[in-house]
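Please check this chain.
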Amino acid sequence: MTIERETGCRAVMTDVLGPPEGYRLVGHDPGPPSPTQVRIAIRATGISFVDVLTAAGGYQVKPPLPYIPGSECAGIVEAVGAEVQDLAVGDNVVGSGWGGLFADAVNLPARTVRAMPAALSFEEAAVFPVSYQTAWHALVDRGRLQAGETLLILGAGGATGYAAVQIGKHLGARVIASASSEAKRTLAATGGADVLIDARGADWRDRVKAATGGKGVDIVFDPVGGEATDPAFRSLAWNGRHLVIGFPAGIAALRTNLPLLKGASLIGVDVRQFGIFEPEKSEANRDTVFALAAKGQLRPAIARSYKLEDFRAAMEDAAAGRSAGRIVLTMD
């Protein structure tokens, strides 16, 4: 069984990686799904900084051409492959992929698609999987966060930062949220942050120190990089863990005597490779965060929605990083 469309499908596409101006909205129908795929009528697609970076050719791994951006979406199943058993036409679902999702329709492997939590809207569900799985993997698998520990989150009003605020509180941490604008700090407070700090304040380190009573923080969640990394690492307590999530502000250089003096660890977090090398654990993590979303305990924040035809403005908005909450493309 399939759902028949009344109009043609479109996709945002380019033959040369680069800025949003180089992308075009073109007719594009992905065709029927393979035996192990499902075809999804996309209702909303999330846009992250990494999506825009990949589209520009600035990510460490270059996608094949021609390229359609997008890594997470929510929509309705239009057709299922012959070997797919757990999904049916008409199901509301969430899907993840490396590209292909700035479009009206996509074929995705069934293993990357799952039922959409009923507590979330299409827009919320579209920005849920990657950020929340990344934050859970970082804090639980890599950081081994324990209840009662102090967690410092850089970029707390951004995609993974806001997810880390909610997950950190769920796990019993005391959360210090650092963000660059009042709107982002307000959002972090909405997510449950205990302490709010201006990321651009000249007294940033003093504020962090005061918030810990001079003891330092147990974990730094760092999706920012650049000049923020060094002072954050210096704010760690003995046996602290600094989680490297990303570096939109640039790749930092850290003096190697600092981990020695603090008995601290610098830990990389790559959820994409985690899914490749440890697929069973990755799936278990996904089950956990989706279950929490279904209970209403985890919920992303939407800053703005754009129509698919306004994709350039949406990509520029996401790249600017000024919004408190997520940027979403919506389809008719």
